[in-house]
Amino acid sequence: MFGNYTATQKDLKTVEDGLRFVMHPKMRFVFKDKSKIVNTAVISYDSRFIYIWKINPIKLTFKIPHNLDILNEWQSGWWAGIVSKQIKKYLPDEIKKTTQFEIPIISGGFLTPFITLQKEKDVSANPYITEESYLATVVHEFGHVYWNNFKLWWQSNKKVNLDYIQTAIDLYSSGKSSSLSKNNLIHISSPTYLGEVFAFCTEYCSSEFFWPKHKQKIDKYAISQIEKIAHEEKLKDLNTQDSTFEPTTNSHDYALIVGKILLTQFPTNWTSTLTRPLIFT
After folding, report:
1. Has residue 232 been placed in a domain?
2. C-alpha 61: how far from its chain's center?
3. Can you tell me whether residue 5 is helix, strand or coil?
4. Is residue 88 part of a domain?
5. CA-to-CA distance for 222 and 27, rounded, in angstroms?
6. Number of domains within the chain
7. What are the φ/ψ torsions at residue 162 (nearest 5 degrees)?
8. Which of 24, 76, 201, 256 is the most buried (most CB within 10 A)?
9. Do 44 and 108 share a domain, yes or no?
């Protein structure tokens, strides 16, 4: 449907509007340490070009021609990371050859195809069919970027990994380690579904600040979805079956339920609660 789509000025402007909301002073409540998001590369694409923005300051930095077939799936959402490895080969070296800690990436489709494709989904009370929802989705992905800098669920920082490995070798060999004496903190990896909880809370919080209509749509969708979950859960035998909102297989529903509870119970400190390291000292 959008294989020949060319981005309009409205599409380009709306991406930049989303980035302005990320950097809005009210969002300091969520993004307390801006250094964890300011180097993010923001990537979108149409049938002719790959577009890359920086956010410090907000600027369209690259417009790169390509010969890819842009799939509807790529236009229908946003992701923390590159939506497809096919795009990676077109990225400039300053992005392609760095780690996600140096230059995090979010990527996704433009406003017009995003809304059109979302409307075609078989989702009851789908809240992602408006311009507000598009802006909120961009902010949501920055929630993932921020979380990933605190609570990685996989051992993805090579320097940290090698420090841990060498420390363990030293301790097994001699019972001593210079690394341990310099830093006695052991960080335990956190599960991916908590990142989805943080990103949901980021989106919901920003919607309370900026987009009350989108918040109302999330509420309506949440009630509809959670009522279905409740019905299914009542029929489960949890001694032999996984819960309907088992977080390792259904992180979005888990975030929909747990995120709302967290926001209500900890309205002023949910960000610090979720990003607090799980450590032993």
Report:
1. no
2. 22
3. coil
4. yes
5. 23
6. 2
7. -65, -35
8. 201
9. yes
